Batch of 2 targets.
Target 1
Amino acid sequence: MLQYLSAGVFCLLTCTLSAQPTVRLLPLAEQFNAPTDIVADPRTDGQLYIVEKEGRVQALDTIGGTKTLWLDLSESVDDRSEGGLLGMAFHPEPDSAYVYVNYTQPSQLSRHLVTTVARFSLGVDGSPNPASQQILLAIEQPATNHNAGDLAFGPDGYLYIPTGDGGGGGDPFDNGQDPSSLLGKILRVDVDKQGVDPTTSEPRKYAVPTDNPFVGSEDTLAEIWSLGLRNPWRISFDRQTGDLWIGDVGQNEREEVDFQAAGSTGGQNYGWNCREGFSTYSGSTDRYCGDTEKTFNAPELDYPHRGNDGVNGASITGGFVYRGPAANLQGYYIFADFAAPRLFFYRADLAEEDRLTVRSDLPLQSTSTFGEGRDGKLFVAHFRSGTIYLITGDGTTPTTAPARTTTLAVYPNPAREHLRIDVPTDFTDRLRVVLYAADGREVMSQLYPAGSQQIELSLPNLVPGAYTIELTAGKRRGTARLTVQH
């Protein structure tokens, strides 16, 4: 029988909403194009860098309220599907003159993408030299989704690189558990040294730390720090404790937060695709799941895609443990969900019933990333509008809990080209309909006037399969599972 190590809160259908932190979102003056990362300048207070999916990095002066183009990789970046310029990190040494980026470029071997981790040199004015690019790592992707894309330096000075499972649905390539694949993992490398590829004997522009957990293994790649991940969309280190937090996007049922305490020796296996959150993944055909000796590490917490009195979502966006100036937010791990207007607050040191709270009354939609300022201030990005918000703890925004989710009446179901939705009588505000694919991607969004009693929906050319349809009106929310056939 598969073993599973429990380490946290199991939020199945019983998560409660305790007294919620007072919080306010303050929009910054400038807007951006599909932001995927927010990075602080390590030398200058008030200076942020906003990474944009299509391949540009904008420098934002939050004090003066101006932005300037800082780095343009758009001619190299392939931003199809979930690809693009996805992450950036400055070298942690104060006198270092390097910045690292994670992006996808077109593959020369297939019609898919190549995950590329590269380094650029910085000039004396702190600007990157576009001609200085050095590629550290290139990983062929078997599909265009699940590219992960974050970068983070740990307290140990090593670079941590989260990778997705290679895409598709349900990890059809078995990468999450495959010890010979760099996909579905967190990698840990030393960018201050050069090494040699043990397979080709070719030099490479990074070294493997000697204390990585699988150094010397005959069947597991030495770069691997932890494995069993689906699409770890944003990781972060707690700047006070050094703990590592991971937001891993789920498949059909669960979203999860994984945790590694500071000083961890690595080697964790978070179970995908044998597990999804705390649950067994029912769609698994992975050849590794039958290994009765395999030990999986439980997530710190998970939450479902449906129901649960609004403590739900469909595509987690990992955040940060708050260490900024707002005293009432101290110690909360703050994260969000791309597919639902949620801001989550989690503290493991509270009573179990108070650990996880949620705010659904804030102007958040399509939350794509978080970022810390040099002073610990926390920022969050709205992907579609391009708005960056400062999260403060001095607001008086109401702390009302979300209403219970309603099950919608939709027909026909299965559907082909058209769909009808009966609008519940208490959905009196302006209506928004969103259709989500099984992997949490938003594939359609439309607005309808308040007072509508029925919605006639023309379906786009969708791939046959399972979808989730969501109807919102103010704080009211309804969902239904939908099958699309040709």
Target 2
Amino acid sequence: MREATRAWFQISLQTFGGPAGQIAVMQHKLVDEKRWIGQRRFLHALNYCMLLPGPEATQLAIYTGWLLNGIRGGLIAGGLFLLPGMLALLALSGIYVGYGETDVVTALFAGVAPAVIAIVVQAVHRVGRRALHHPALVTLAVASFAALTFLAVPFPAVVFAAGLLGWLLSRSIPALREPPAPDTGDGPAPLISDDALHHELPTVRRSGTVLAVGAVLWFAPVVAFAALAGTTGTPVFVDQGVFFSGAAVVTFGGAYAVLSYVAQQAVGVYHWLAPGEMVRGLALAETTPGPLIMVVQFVAFVGAYRNPGSLDPWLAAVLASLLVTWVTFVPCFLFVLLGAPYVERLRDNRGLSAALTGITAAVVGVIANLAVFFALHTLFDRSRAVDAGWLHVDVPVLGSWDPVAFAITAVALGVMFRLGWSPLRTLGLCAALGVGVHLLGLL
């Protein structure tokens, strides 16, 4: 346990660059270097976590921690995975609220917002290249993008339909339900091999206990904050607690997919943020370790600061950010610790793999929708809604285009796709460009 805790602390400080980078860090540390988990076992855990709502990298950390050391191991792994990013983004959110309107900070965000567009476009490319290995899956991805972008189809409906279609497609395309390849890594046999049974068996008593404890831990803070809201006139606590609790169970496909849904609701429905501020929050989250979905903490912080009721704005902001972080990530622990013993018995289930294939294809379309949302509100100063029958779409006002944003976006795309720069390095360059353009008087 002590050695595993040290390993998870080391992993938590290296988890920059989004879910792909985080999964790669765990792959290197747990599978390749430590040889604690077999490759096929690791991929099976990843497949299950991708099928769950919420951030798959965080859930994978919890799952592999459970594989190694049971429930305590899962709690330690997940907690350490989240802690550095949570503390860093809490501090950055405070800095943004306190100093975000200064010229220098405005210039920094003028540079990093275009970089975020490039980062999300790269995510579309990477996930699409891996996931869309059949024309039917390409069609499913395009249909998911069109449903979200042009038809305003609810996000959960798109994900459910994608899983169902993936399962149906697998009946005529057997390759969609093939299990992962066996472990071919070098070195000694893994501590937990691909074929070994886990010691923690699924039982009704265990499942009932985990479900009861998890549900209480999940919803008790929401009830407590609802009571606080009644005495302080701070309804934002209730709105955020209920919304992000619901988001935790309907957002599939990782951080970028979750952010597409959060952006639609936080900006367009609850008005906690302006459209451009969602891009800024993601830029801040990109600079911190841990899951990108930690940006919900930024959303809660800014929203509560501006709607504090009778509380001090800073106190309301900190309380809201902690509440939202809690209700967003407690379900990750609940879903994994509840389902992992059963999933361990389904390692060769082809139907599960097929449903995951469909959802992963749809996620490509979801991330592309997020890229369009960010581009619309970063590259243009104004947009307008178009509603015609089934069509519901925001389009830019072409005369409001921002030449500086277009130029920095082109630079970010160039260094990421042509030179292979990391997201963090690209953000640093674009931030410097934003400050440089400000000093030249072009902003």
